[in-house]
Design a protein that fits this description.
By secondary structure, the chain is mostly helical. Helices cover about 75% and strands about 0% of the residues. Helix 1 packs antiparallel against helix 2. It is elongated and about 55 Å long. The model has no long low-confidence stretch (mean pLDDT about 90).
C-alpha cells in the first residue's frame, strides 16, 4: 500500500477555511474600527463566533495534516505537509490575536 504524496482535497479545503473566516471577520468589523459600519450583531457578536470557528477548524485541520503526513519518503514530499501545518498554526495564532482585538475593542 502506497502512502499519499500530496494532501487530500479535504485537507486543502480545511486549510483555506480559517483564512476565509478571518478575512470575513476583518471585513465585518471594518478593520477593527471603533465605529464599524454594520449593526452590533454583525460587527461584534458574529465576528467573535467566526473567530472561534476559525480556531476550531485550524486545530482540526492541523491534526488532519499530521495524520496525512507520510512517515516515509523524501523530504520534498513531507515539506508540503510541514508548510500546511505551519500555516495552520499561524491561523490559530491569528485567531487568538483577532479574538483579543475583538474583546478589547468592542467589549471592554
Amino acid at each position: 500500500m502506497q502512502e499519499r504524496a500530496a494532501p487530500s482535497a479535504v485537507l486543502i479545503a480545511l486549510t483555506l477555511l480559517p483564512l476565509a473566516l478571518l478575512v470575513a471577520v476583518w471585513l465585518l468589523t471594518g478593520g477593527f474600527s471603533e465605529k464599524p459600519p454594520l449593526s452590533p450583531f454583525y460587527s461584534k457578536i458574529l465576528p467573535l463566533a467566526l473567530v472561534a470557528v476559525a480556531a476550531i477548524a485550524s486545530i482540526f485541520a492541523y491534526s488532519l495534516a499530521r495524520d496525512e503526513e507520510p512517515e516515509w519518503g523524501t523530504s520534498a514530499q513531507r515539506v508540503v505537509f510541514k508548510a500546511i501545518e505551519g500555516a495552520l498554526l499561524a491561523y490559530l495564532l491569528l485567531s487568538a490575536i483577532f479574538a483579543a482585538l475583538l474583546l478589547l475593542t468592542y467589549f471592554l
